[in-house]
Amino acid sequence: MTTNLSRDEQLRGRQLVRNALRNFTSQLLVFYNPKINLEEMNDLYDRPLDIVLFHRTKGLMGVAIKGGEVVEENGTLVSQYQPSKQYSKIIDPIKQAKRAMFALLDDLDPAFKEFVPVSVAVFYPDTHQSEFNNPSAMFLFQEHLDVPELQGHMADLFLEAWDTDKTVKYAANDTRKKKFLKLRNNKKNLH
């Protein structure tokens, strides 16, 4: 019974984030649960991404969703309660998201990460920002799921990945962006 509750909480949190992102469909392509080569995910703490956002002019953003009971630890570490195992586990969701994002890019086209701005975000759909003393700028909370609030935060997160060199390279590599989309579409991960 505890395992089912955990799965229901996970699905509910993912659904909340998906519903909020639907309002960005004109600006973003959204990939849900993108598949990656599991050999790249060899660390016990690695996890695949829940969502990847593709913005034609701003780059890619990997999104991890951490639902349920989450407590702030040091830096970007959080303690997440695992109902199925009946204990809390300390994780670094930003590190997980970055590793998964680069594993995904390596699986598709290793050169892609050399010119595309890549950023990550972690959504806590069941947690309020006020529950954290020093939240990372990459963390998005329950109150950020409101569309105007989310739009501003997403724009800021995409901008963090930009630098002048990547801006020029990203604009010049339209063919590679189209190849990326074709690969993702062929793998039937685009929704």
Provide a descriptive summary of the structure in words.
- By secondary structure, the chain is of the alpha/beta class.
- It contains 5 helices and 8 strands, in the order αββββββαββααα.
- It has a 5-stranded mixed beta sheet with strand order 1-2-3-7-8, with helices on both faces.
- The chain is globular, with a radius of gyration of 16 Å.
- It starts with a helix and ends in a 5-residue tail after the last helix.
- 28% of the residues are buried.
- The model is unreliable at 1-5 and 187-191 (pLDDT under 50).
Which key phrases capture this entry?
191 residues, alpha/beta, 5 helices, 38% helix, disordered N terminus, disordered C terminus
Quick recap of the structure?
This protein has 191 residues and is an alpha/beta fold. 38% of the residues lie in helices and 21% in strands.
